[in-house]
Amino acid sequence: MRIWVLGGGAIGLLYAAKLRASGADVMLLTRTREQAAKIAASGIEVCDEKGSWNIPCVSIAVDDLTQPGELGEEAPEWILLTVKQYGITERMLAWLNSLGQASPRMKLLAMQNGLGHLERLAAHLPPERLYAAVVSEGALRTGPASVQHTGSGVTKIGAAAPDGEGEMQRRRTLRDLQKVLQNAGFESILSKQLIDDLWHKLIINSVINPLTALLGIPNGELIEHQSLLTVMRQLMEEARTVAARSGAQTDDSIWESILEVCRRTASNRSSMLQDLEAGRPTELRWINGAVVEAARRCGLSVPTHETILQLVQAKERIR
């Protein structure tokens, strides 16, 4: 199985490295030639609580890739799309469309946080080619060719459009990918309710990420202050109401899940906080912004999310 990992951020580096270490046929596609050259020359360094090791990995910048129509047998069977939401540009969508037309066997696994990406991708890929993942691995990019694995999690995978014609074939396709992921050390689960899973993670992210970004604190500090717990619960309850109105089911234990994430990742700095500190765009638009937009479509009011959205947007502008 030939796999391309598209995106050289923390998740892309982690999955490319571990898949390659397991013997999978993997190539990492990066945005810049500089990153690709460094990885091609020295591999990917992965660090965790057990130590660190270096994994050789083929890497190339997307702009240097052979045109989709000329790939032939070199085309991938799977693309793991690991760029952040704002990295899914119109140019990338057009490239994926061309690759899909030239490579009948190509399938894509979208691994983004938030909502909105599947609809954009579905406009360029047929349903039998489009799959999604909900990822809870902890990863921190420490350099262009190095990543720290800060915590093991679960990778839930499923079809973006799970119902309808071809469902059984899509399940068989996913089982093949699941085996490859598990062989690389990723706990992988096939999900029949991926939209529910996406909303579940969205709610957790919409509570933890913006507050840590605004306050500049690690995840664990959120639950040390009663005033913050009050705001966190308000954010959760608003988002759950929107999820239910949007047709998603969320578990009653989600509040405990939020607290557990804060405890388990107490020293972690959320991705939104890291983005702000590094001067990068954040995924706010696809997290809290997605809650606000879905609420508007449903005729609901989410004042806490609207306030948080405005505050983080202001911080992005004045940093």
Automatic annotation (TrEMBL):
Which principal EC class is assigned to this enzyme?
oxidoreductase
Out of the domains of life, which is the source? Bacteria
Q: What function is annotated for this protein?
A: Catalyzes the NADPH-dependent reduction of ketopantoate into pantoic acid.
**What does the entry list under GO cellular component?**
cytoplasm
Q: In which pathway does it act?
A: Cofactor biosynthesis; (R)-pantothenate biosynthesis; (R)-pantoate from 3-methyl-2-oxobutanoate: step 2/2
Q: What is its EC number?
A: 1.1.1.169
UniProt catalytic activity? (R)-pantoate + NADP(+) = 2-dehydropantoate + NADPH + H(+)
Q: Where is the Ketopantoate reductase N-terminal domain?
A: 3-160
Keyword Oxidoreductase on this protein?
A: yes
A GO biological process of this protein is: pantothenate biosynthetic process
> Which is one Pfam family of this protein?
ApbA_C
What is the gene called? panE
Which parts of this chain are annotated as the region Disordered?
Answer: 144-166
MF-aspect GO terms: 2-dehydropantoate 2-reductase activity; NADP binding
* Residues of the Ketopantoate reductase C-terminal domain: 195-316
Q: Which organism is it from?
A: Insulibacter thermoxylanivorax
Please verify whether the record's keywords include Signal.
no
What this protein is called in its record is 2-dehydropantoate 2-reductase
